[in-house]
Amino acid sequence: MNEVLKTISKIGIVPVIALDDAKKAVPLAKALVAGGLPAAEITFRTAAAEEAIRAIKAEVPEMLVGAGTVTSRERLDRALAAGSEFIVTPGFNPDTVKYGIDKGALMLPGTATGGEMEQAMALGLEAVKFFPAEDNGGIKKLKAMAGPYRELMWMPTGGVNTKNMMDYLSFPQIIACGGTWMVKKDLIEGACWDEITAICRDAVKVMLGIELAHVGVNTESREEAERLAKLVSGMMGLSTRDTGKSWFACDNGIEFMSRKGPGTMGHIGFKTNSVERAMYHLGLQGIEFDESSITYTEKGAPRFVYFKGEFGGFAIHLVNR
Predict the structure, then answer these.
(1) Which of 112, 136, 151, 154 could form a disulfide with 130 if both were Cys (CB 3.0 to 4.6 A apart)?
(2) Helix (H, G, I), strand (E, B) or coil at 39
(3) Which fold has domain 211-320?
(4) Are 229 and 249 in contact (CB under 8 A)?
């Protein structure tokens, strides 16, 4: 997969921004980064787009910046000259898409039909925009179309928000969601940077969906693990489960290890909607992971990982729900 596409996938949400005043571009970008969304599609619906892209690239280098509403070769040239790392078009114009490919640009053309998607695939594209998503049947339509297009990934945009984005992101062929709900015009005009940051943080929290899965306790033997699991579950009137390597107690809330595992005392497991995205976003906060502990899905995405170090004698891991 293209490296920029990989980053877009890890970020998961791409704010789609229309700026009337390029001077607001940098503080807006900093607000998005603070909220955990270091990506933006700056639309060429306004005259400020080119200057805004240049300013963000110069002053917020950690930001992944693309250009949207690119409807002509001239706009595409201006977007690339300003530093755009990906190009998004509202519809599928073969001439514009081919021109961008010839320029070496990462193209994400807008599509709504199978015919447009097939044309994009024929040009060698790995992903396309699905626009306007909700008005075109949403995730239900994409799932219905997925059969013949299993190698294609989509970035739905249009009508997506915090409430419905997981309907999309839980489907494997969705690379990310584009949206405007965290960058509404009134928030930008009012310079409501803290509010934008808060909306972004909430969106990231919902996207990752991190929750406590279980607490693991180290024991000296399989017999000891079984005894403790049955004792604790019996007191609470809850179930036990034998995994072969451990015994789960209290309806899977506590895991008694048959032998000493990671962590002096044991481990704490958290489940998430995506270990890969969680690793990326937690990494932005400076959290480090034990790379040797990662296990992968059949498609090569991380599904399990331990954090580096111990926390009160416990190791911590993430696992896909």
Answers:
(1) 154
(2) strand
(3) 2,3-Dihydroxybiphenyl 1,2-Dioxygenase; domain 1 (3.10.180)
(4) yes
Q: Identify the active-site residue in 50, 57, 129, 226.
A: 129
Question: Is 23 tagged catalytic?
Answer: no
Residue of 30, 41, 226, 255 marked active site? 41
| Fold entry, domain 3-207 | TIM Barrel (3.20.20)
For the segment 21-57, what is each residue's pLDDT rounded down to a tens digit? 999 999 999 999 999 999 999 999 999 999 999 999 9
In the structure, what pLDDT confidence band is assigned to residue 132 with cuts at 50, 70 and 90? very high
Task: Supply 261's token pair.
Answer: 């595992």
Cα distance between residue 168 and residue 166, in whole Å: 5
pTM for the predicted model, two decimal places: 0.94
Which residues partner with 88 through β-bridges? 108
Q: Going edge to edge, which strands form the sheet with 64-68? A: 107-108, 87-88, 64-68, 39-43, 13-17, 177-179
Q: How far apart are CA 46 and CA 8, in angstroms?
A: 24
Domain(s) of CATH 3.10.180.10: residues in the chain: 211-320
DSSP 188-244: HHTT-HHHHHHHHHHHHHHHH--EEEEEEEE-SSHHHHHHHHHHHHHHHT---EE-S
pLDDT tier for residue 236 given thresholds of 50, 70 and 90: very high
Average pLDDT for residues 154-174, to the nearest whole number?
97
Q: What mean pLDDT comes out for the span 192-218?
A: 98
Q: Is 129 a catalytic residue?
A: yes
**pLDDT exceeding 70 applies to what percent of the chain?**
100
Residue 261's pLDDT is: 85
